[in-house]
Design a protein that fits this description.
alpha/beta; four-stranded mixed sheet; two-stranded parallel sheet; 6 strands; binds fe (ii) ion
Length: about 270
């Protein structure tokens, strides 16, 4: 039971979250959550004045993640990130992602801030409209290479960075369209397809596994574990019936022969959903 002197926080953090007992961090999370809560869809996302500490965390993550990406990310991702070059400046603003030189420039997609947990149905419904619902906060500075929840690094490096790759925006909209008419079982199949492609998709380059999925791209730990991860062929029928884990490094992933094959097979399967 809360006492009258105990602060009330809008954003709930898990018991093992690195920022659980950091009152300043929690106030900051609330502040950014309120910006997202007050966002009006269809208008540009509010710009966040990121603090020096947040920008330092971004730079620290970049110094670790960048070499891992060059070593383990799919060629198309490496090229896309090199063109965008998000590490060379302070934390990118959601509002600037669609600007010239931004990864969404050619697609018409926009990133809009999300206030709290979002159901998969609402997430897919936004994709259908060309909107990616994104968090806007930075992880806790005490553990720059770890986050127990999707944060800006996941959204920017994992998702925004891949939107410049042909086929990613089209696939995202297709997920949204399929989800609009899906029953609960079909929605669960779409979630698994999304998980093993957009979030944790792997492609082979000269027989070597390379990361495409956002969950891999945004985590040096996941990228480093990729060469040791059990891989199975990317077969949409198998993928859509394989339950995934969210609380540890992925034990099994699915690899396609190329990124074109991964995106093509997934698109075909999503569009074939009844
Ligand atoms: Fe994600």
């Amino acid at each position: 039971m809360r006492t009258p002197t105990e602060p009330h926080f809008e954003v709930r953090l898990d018991a093992d979250h690195p920022g659980l007992h950091d009152q300043n961090y929690r106030r900051r999370r609330d502040q950014i959550a309120r910006l997202a809560r007050d966002h009006v869809s269809g208008t540009p996302p509010e710009r966040v004045a990121y603090t020096d500490e947040e920008n330092e965390t971004w730079a620290t993550i970049g110094s670790h993640l960048r070499p891992s990406l060059e070593r383990h990310a799919a060629r198309e991702v490496v090229e896309s990130m090199a063109r965008w070059a998000p590490w060379s400046a302070p934390i990118p603003q959601l509002a600037d992602l669609s600007a010239p030189g931004g990864p969404l420039e050619a697609t018409g997609f926009v990133f809009e801030p999300v206030h709290g947990l979002l159901s998969s149905r609402d997430f897919f419904a936004a994709l259908r409209r060309g909107v990616f619902r994104s968090t806007q906060y930075m992880r806790h500075p005490s553990r720059p290479l770890y986050t127990p929840e999707p944060d800006l690094v996941h959204e920017l490096v994992g998702h925004a960075g891949t939107f410049a790759i042909p086929g990613v925006a089209e696939l995202s909209v297709a997920f949204g369209e399929a989800a609009a008419g899906a029953d609960a079982d079909q929605l669960a199949m779409l979630e698994r397809l999304y998980w093993y492609s957009v979030e944790f998709g792997v492609v082979l380059e000269e027989g070597e596994p390379k990361a495409f999925g956002a969950g891999l791209l945004s985590s040096a730990g996941e990228l480093g574990a990729l060469p040791r991860t059990e891989l199975r062929p990317f077969d949409p029928a198998t993928v859509s019936n394989t339950v995934y884990v969210t609380d540890r490094v992925q034990p099994v992933l699915f690899a396609a022969g190329s990124l074109g094959e991964l995106l093509g097979l997934t698109l075909e399967a999503v569009r074939a959903m009844p």
